[in-house]
Amino acid sequence: MVRLLVQWLLSAVALLAVSYLVPGFEVDGLGPALVAVLVIGLLNATVGFFLKIVTFPVSILTLGLFLLVINGLMILLASSIVRGFHVRGFGAAFWGAVVLALLGILIRAIARSA
User: Fold this and answer.
1) Over 70: is that where the pLDDT of 114 sits?
2) Considering its fold, how many domains does the chain have in total?
3) Closest to 78 in 3D by CA, of 99, 92, 65, 62
4) I need a surface site. Which of 10, 28, 33, 45 has the fewest CB within 10 A?
5) Measured distance CA(71)–CA(99) in Å, rounded
6) Quick one: average pLDDT of 34-53?
7) For 9-42, what is each residue's pLDDT tens digit?
8) By the 8 A CB rule, do 87 and 27 touch?
9) Each residue of 53-63: pLDDT tens digit?
């Protein structure tokens, strides 16, 4: 349970970091970041899961890079739902997904070594 809460908090901090690194990607604070991470997770588990199944052949052809497009779409959809979380266009959502993926890898690597 504690590990899940720490992962949630670290993901929210990563989302805040993305807001500083990616133009057009804005988070108004830790509260909206926590909610946005939950919404993005729920969207990825439902709509994103369906899209990943449907677009599986495209993902194979692009060696998995198309999954970043789907993640960008989920981020863009979440920004239309969560107050205090704004993404201006697909370009910002796509690059936000790229940076979030890289930060996620870094967070998992640090968590495993600790």
Assistant:
1) no
2) 1
3) 92
4) 45
5) 11
6) 94
7) 999 999 999 999 999 999 999 999 999 999 999 9
8) no
9) 999 999 999 99
Both tokens of 56, joined, read 């599986």
How far is Cα 83 from Cα 73, in angstroms, rounded to an integer?
17
Instruction: Give the whole-angstrom CA distance, residue 40 versus residue 42.
Output: 5
φ/ψ of residue 29, rounded to 5: 155, -175
DSSP state of 25: E
Query: What is the distance between the alpha carbons of residues 72 and 92, in angstroms, rounded to a whole number?
Result: 8
18: domain range? Answer: 2-113
Q: Is 90 exposed, middle or buried (0-12, 13-18, 19+ CB in 10 A)?
A: middle
Beta-bridged to residue 75, according to DSSP, are: none
